[in-house]
Amino acid sequence: MNTGSPDVDPVQNAWHRLGSEMRRIREMRQLSRPAVYAQTGDDPSNLAKWEAATRHIPSDAMRRIDDLYGANGLLIALRDMAAEIDRAARVSPKADTGHAMDMEYVRRQILASLAALGTTAVLPPLGTLRHLMGPDRVQDWEEVVWERSLALHTQPIPDLVQDLAQDIIDFQQNLSRLGASSLAAPWQRVNAQLLCLMARALGSAGHRRESRGWWAKAREAAERSGDGQLLAFFLAQQTVQGLYEHRPVQVLLNHTDEALAAAQGAPCAGVVKALSMQAQIRAMQGNVQGSLIALREQAREFKRLPDSVSGDHDSAWGFPEERMMHTRSFATIHGTGMPDDDEARQAALATYPVGNIRGRTQMRLHQAVQQVRNGDIVAGLDLARAAVAELPEHDRTIFVRFDAEAVLTAAPRTLQSKREQTAAMEYQQVLALPSGSVSDAQA
To answer: Pfam families, from UniProt (predicted)?
Structure first.
């Protein structure tokens, strides 16, 4: 999706995001500016200024253009959101509690996040965003967080982001009304968890820039809450995302060290997740001994977890046995020199909830990698193709694609038989990769 000039950060300038979307849709509809003028009466020079964000488009012009472009209210919503951000900045440029500045930032983040997904289906009604008044009791918000955490592994990401956008705006409005009491630990924990869920949803969809903004705010809220276990979980989870985004290894290892320090020896999901990442990263580095040590330490810490964590198979906050098995399988599949662990893959498949189709798909892809490595190239590629093809497009997260592309990496650079070449070509087509050779896909 075209996001406009590379020098413009759409998170910081909502009007540039709107202008970028106006231009993108106009060009997609193959409409010139004079053609727009002929049908709406809006001067081409004004349209150019609106698209460049050097002038703000009036609401009546926006309605005409949205209708002409068949944007189904997307441009109207983006325009109203940008105007609302400006109004908030003018009315409350400063506040003792910092909520006004946070609200402006959050609104801009939401604007950028929704626009990044590029579909009108994910944009909540502006009236809903502006006028929601959520529950005043923190317990009610804790229930909201729990429901959203259950949806993280099962709900289509665009739908989840829409729900979270509404929740976050609503929650921030509540914080601004609560004043000093909003800084209490329970409120900040809920704040951190909502922001973390948005970061995870956007990150899994591949929108790393938008995701990182939410991670930064989630960490701030977690630190304000004083909950070291929560902070440890966030740092470890951010490392998970960073690994699949190919971020520098040392940065990731630093995050795991921070997570372990934040937990202060308490048995919690953050500690087990951080050790999981150390095992996976060291395996990928070819440090077999270091990976095995981390796996053994993780197994010991897993036994210390409360049942509420190790027995939580459904929410975003648990670390059940299948996650342990996933760690062992990942180290085998993506590591160098690690012993095979088909037992872990089979155990993970047996225990992953049926609704977690992304996790189950990753395990099937791990199986496919091992089949290819064992020389059964056609069977491995066919298994991988079937696993990915069965997954809806919105469920093909960065985590799934990471494992899916590992299947091609496992294949020999030169495929000998026609059946192998055909299987590789069909798999590449499912992945929407170039239809050239496997070596091209690996480069």
So the answer is: HTH_31
